[in-house]
Design brief:
Two copies of one chain form a homodimer.
Chain A lengths: L9 H8 L3 H8 L7 H14 L5 H8 L4 E6 L9 H17 L4 E6 L6 H10 L5 E4 L7 H9 L3 E4 L9 E5 L1 H14 L5 E5 L5 H16 L6 E3 L6 H11 L6 E4 L2 H13 L9 E5 L3 H5 L5 E4 L2 H17 L7 E4 L2 E3 L13
Helix pairs in contact in A: 1-2, 1-3, 5-13, 6-7, 8-9, 10-11
The structure holds a DNA duplex (30 and 30 nucleotides).
Chain lengths: 346, 346
DNA sequence: AATATAAACCAAAACGTTTCGGATGTTCAA
DNA sequence: TTGAACATCCGAAACGTTTTGGTTTATATT
């Protein structure tokens, strides 16, 4: 009671019980070379004094930081990324649920010349035990750096050399096959894929899935690639819908694109739920609240987080390195733009 | 060259230059009791060897962690929060821009019995120098705890006792005055406020702003309070629109509510841009992409982040404690649901 | 009785900083 | 010539852990 507000340390517990610091330390970390009764006394004293280990001291001596780092790859104009921001929230939660003593350290390293230097500083200061690398690129210098420095990491998205590092990714191939097939099943004969640029690895996978389904049905492939903004997909959709033999089925790489197809259709007096049908991807909030509600391919961010954490965990414990990976399934959520009967005569 | 892959430390620099550790330390931290030439030599050696200070060691001795903590107040069913997730992204970015050596540590402490214990553990382990407290509540135990333990913090949102702690908040009073006034200026005679429950402090401020404008114009106040979900606001809007003397102007506490008003209006054959007009709040992505696009009150998340960081900074440097605060302005973004001429005869 | 084994404990070193309290030599005013 | 003031440097302690390499005592084995 006289120790007042002083922070409890191993030493203070030790002299409180007239015992050595070593024993207190070993008792609290569960070593078995301490007598059951002694351990209990120590535990009680620790609880009483409200002992919480000083992490800096522990980290200094062990060299481990018990922290995971995420260096945000966003740049300034790029802050509205729905996936990234929600992923962060989910990952933080999942990490805590998995182990409340693991810290998540969030910093910032936008693509560019200073990107690698930022990673290097992070590694050197030993702030984190492992990284989660977001927005992985085909040819990703971050991956090379981390591999070379032997820092554990998991990428979100595959890269060129996915064989020799950990990654998780969405199964875009299966997902876009599924979406395309569902339109085929409804009787669509002309189905188009509105895709994003090929610099992203996923874009290729979307093409593969789409073409798998198209080929199975003996239909003709029709793919349009575009940047995603508020204007271009809208124009593309407008042109497509005005053409002869316009497509009736639209599989879109993003809900944002799907939404612009809806807009273009409305403009032309085409019913976006019956005359044509549309499936997007990512299940953005606007998709289930809009008018019409937009069908979409959805993945669970919890699945993403869980998968990453599982890999991280085995990585941090394991002695030998085995590259691990995990594909996350897409689920087709059928909403108004694809859950009604298709009337090809529209 | 022979030191190969060994990590550079103060000691290694010191013996490399045949000089004391103290001097190296003081040179690198910019003290002025070291000769200019010596300092330069040290700096060069440090750069050459790629010296990066070991943060654990520094933290151990200084007792400072150079880290800001955010304990997410979300619970599991509650992960879709648009503000929170985007705020996190922005804040991380802004913090880095302000000082790349400050860590942001994200963990998790949902409202409930364990909430305070989580904070306490965080404080005791000295992981962070300061907290950002999100989703502040009127009567907030976290605030009490942090005040008592004298840990610096800023709340996002005011509390009962806002006088004696740091906070930032949106200026909901001014914002809702502005929105209401803009509808008045368009000629609306019956304007209703669709508000969120009063347990949130902001709800009161919205009422004040709304009533200020209504009173100035000599109109009649009409307020409806509801939970925000996919059903209730829709029903409320439906009932309101069907009634005699239905309101023509709708000021909504959230874009989600605004959106449901649009939906209800469409259902009843009422034009949500001309027969009635609607202003939401928060500028969710669905608002500028939807059909119609929804007018909204917007704040800049960068403003939020900057304000918090500024307060944090003076808090961490300052010796005497002066409670600081900052109101963030709302900006009225006029889109289709309020940027056309109003035709009251509809 | 001697020796091996096991159980329980501990002193001291180490981790890499920062900082306190000088120490040394040089310069300048009186 | 004295001593004060300054510029520059440094040794050693401290921060709170973990871990190494023991020692001591009791028990089991030969």
């Amino acid at each position: 009671m006289e120790k007042k507000k002083k922070k409890a340390t191993l030493k203070s517990i030790a002299q409180h019980l007239n015992i050595s610091v070593t024993t207190v330390s070993r008792a609290l970390s569960g070593y078995n070379d301490v007598n059951a009764q002694t351990r209990q006394q120590i535990q009680e004293a620790a609880d009483l004094l409200g002992y919480v280990p000083n992490l800096a001291a522990r980290r200094l001596v062990t060299g481990k930081s018990d922290a995971i780092g995420i260096l945000l790859p966003v740049s300034y104009g790029d802050m509205r990324d729905h996936f990234l921001s929600h992923f962060l929230l989910h990952f933080g939660q999942s990490l805590y649920a998995h182990n409340p003593n693991l810290d998540l350290i969030v910093s910032y390293a936008p693509e560019g010349e200073k990107e690698l230097a930022t990673y290097q500083r992070f590694i050197d200061s030993q702030r984190v035990d492992a990284f989660v690398v977001l927005r992985s690129r085909m040819d990703d210098a971050r991956v090379e750096l981390l591999k070379e420095q032997k820092v554990p990491f998991v990428t979100h998205g595959r890269t060129q050399c996915s064989d020799d590092h950990n990654w998780i990714d969405t199964d875009a191939r299966a997902g876009f096959d599924l979406a395309t097939q569902s339109l085929i099943d409804k009787g669509h004969q002309r189905i188009t894929l509105l895709n994003l640029p090929e610099r992203m690895f996923t874009s290729h996978l979307r093409v593969e899935g789409y073409e798998d389904a198209i080929a199975r049905a003996g239909l003709e492939s029709s793919i349009h690639t575009m940047e995603m903004n508020d204007e271009i997909p809208y124009q593309v959709a407008l042109d497509l819908l005005k053409a002869d033999k316009a497509p009736t089925g639209f599989v879109c790489a993003s809900d944002v694109i799907a939404h612009q197809v809806v807009k273009a259709a409305k403009e032309l007096g085409i019913d976006p739920c019956k005359d044509i049908q549309i499936i997007g991807c990512d299940d953005l909030p606007l998709s289930h609240l809009g008018d019409p509600t937009i069908s979409t391919l959805r993945t669970s961010l919890d699945d993403h987080s869980q998968a990453i954490i599982k890999i991280l965990q085995s990585e941090l414990n394991g002695q030998i390195f085995i590259p691990r990976n995990k594909l996350i399934n897409y689920e087709l959520v059928e909403r108004q733009t694809s859950n009604q009967a298709f009337s090809p005569d529209g």
